[in-house]
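Researcher: I'd like a structural prediction for the single chain below. Treat it as a standalone chain; there are no partners to consider.
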Amino acid sequence: MPRDHMQWSKEEEAAARKKVKENSAVRVLLEEQVKYEREASKYWDTFYKIHKNKFFKDRNWLLREFPEILPVDQKPEEKARESSWDHVKTSATNRFSRMHCPTVPDEKNHYEKSSGSSEGQSKTESDFSNLDSEKHKKGPMETGLFPGSNATFRILEVGCGAGNSVFPILNTLENSPESFLYCCDFASGAVELVKSHSSYRATQCFAFVHDVCDDGLPYPFPDGILDVILLVFVLSSIHPDRMQGVVNRLSKLLKPGGMLLFRDYGRYDKTQLRFKKGHCLSENFYVRGDGTRAYFFTKGEVHSMFCKASLDEKQNLVDRRLQVNRKKQVKMHRVWIQGKFQKPLHQTQNSSNMVSTLLSQD
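Model: Treating it as a single chain, here is the predicted structure.
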């Protein structure tokens, strides 16, 4: 996905600020704001029931922007680092297995016996089905392995929706049986769309219902084992007061050296400028007509949030583009924030980032 990196003129930026000031002058009533927060999953569930998988296009650009999604041959020093981490990971996995997970068949046998077969996928889903049950929602699970426990490269997509990122990734990972993709959404209808898709492979993917805002909900795998977390156009739908907690929790899921990949709406994107009066919930946070919400970030906010979660910033850029509707002769500015944040190998490596974050201003 090539970037235009359009630079706005002072007049264009002033016009954008003016529009935001106008459309945020009237705020949504507090009791309605509470309703939108309380029923957030309901609104998204309704969205996917109406649009199914037809609304968003597949994100085939993901691998160009985020090549970190792909497992690659590790450098010698990375292999040594992985080896030193293995005993910690094994210990954590064993501890988790005793405490949290249902017993499942050995996944290696599943790969050998049922790779590519619908029967194999159905059986694997049956083995793991209780992970989406009320038992999973209420608390820790019992003994056994966890989905993807035999994988050597693990990815989690947060807010998978109907699978517009899931299936381009799965297609790429088809020849990498050592890789495993987790994907979750708090809209149960979205997760069902993913599971019912013809390209869903339960031998290499596990889709589950999960609310990332609820710290008390267990994940179907232990902390500290993920190589990559994908957080694309998800954080903007969460209340600003809860964002830091979400990022903090996700950070714990990464193993040392793991990457969190972020892309979302930027301040003064055309979507923000198009909101009408009466749709503003709080500063730069809006509700759409269907009850779903959107926040518009600055580069500084993104830096602060992820560095406070003890992640090292590897990339943090503003992606500006100009779209022109030639028929209507209308210019539209798109603004996105894209970042890559890495969990340090040693906590002390992040200390300088923490200091700069505390001193920085958006």
